[in-house]
Records
---
Amino acid sequence: MLEIGKKAPAFTLPDDSGKKVSLSSFKGKKVVLYFYPKDNTPGCTQEACDFRDNLARLRAEGAVVLGVSADSVERHRKFKQKYDLPFPLLSDESRQVLEKYGVWKEKKLYGKTFMGIERTTVIIDEKGKVTHVFPKVKVKGHVEQVLDALKA
């Protein structure tokens, strides 16, 4: 599990255009790294649109937003276009980064147990250290929690 004050695990993942994106390239900026289960599902669409609609406020706090799921680059590209999302969506089909960040977990739905992404947001400071972890995110009101944390 991630520890507050510790260095965030390094990663390089392809974005929605296939370009490689590394966490290290955001040194000097705050990073809002949000992990979500699946493109084009109600909760994930709402969360992405909430980040989109509040991006100017997040940027005003010196933050960049990165979304991460196990969806393919192509699926991310379509999702991003459909909802006009102005930030990168990173594809972790191998689930290595999801596991490094502790968000690939056993989940239960309708009595079935399966592995999936626990909706989680991690805030990383300008030096690459974890400052906040929001596990089991409830989408409604989450962006306000993130903004409050960035201001703290």
---
Amino acid sequence: MCHLFFLNYVIMKIIGITGTLGAGKGTIVDYLREHYGYKHYSVRGYLIEEANRRGMELNRDTFVVVANDLRAKHSPSYITDQLYLQAAENGENAIIESVRTPGEVESLRQHDHFLLFGVDADPKVRYERIVGRGSETDHISYETFIENEEREMSSTDPNHQNIGRCMQMADYVFMNNGDFEDLYRQVEEVIQHLEA
């Protein structure tokens, strides 16, 4: 006697977030977590754990060094691949913050139901935001802020950050020069379009 078993496969959505420094990546993450139940996987969190394991000081320069080292030793998409594996094991809709190399985008695009969101804002608006949030990596001058951004926007090394190219590869880009409600409205329009 033959028995047929039908498995219900849950289609997991993965959204990657890329964007300029202080543009509002975390705000989009929080919105998707709170309103749509997305699980959050953070490149920054992964790098903090790795930097702690290596006994290194926690600052932006350290995170860049650690990230570049991991990518050079393994692959340009190594960090987000690790986060994707965690998300796949969990099986729920997930958001991966922050996608920073074209290799990460290309690797994540190999999986069904992946979308890349980009977020940007005027530099002075973004600088005021990062000074206001005051995390361990945000105590910098405006000049250093601009230098960091320029360094991370257009590297030709596939193991280094290239946010400019990632933004070009994004499926949707949000401009976040306004308040929270304006950004939420933009995100909501995209989510409703995707679920229509």
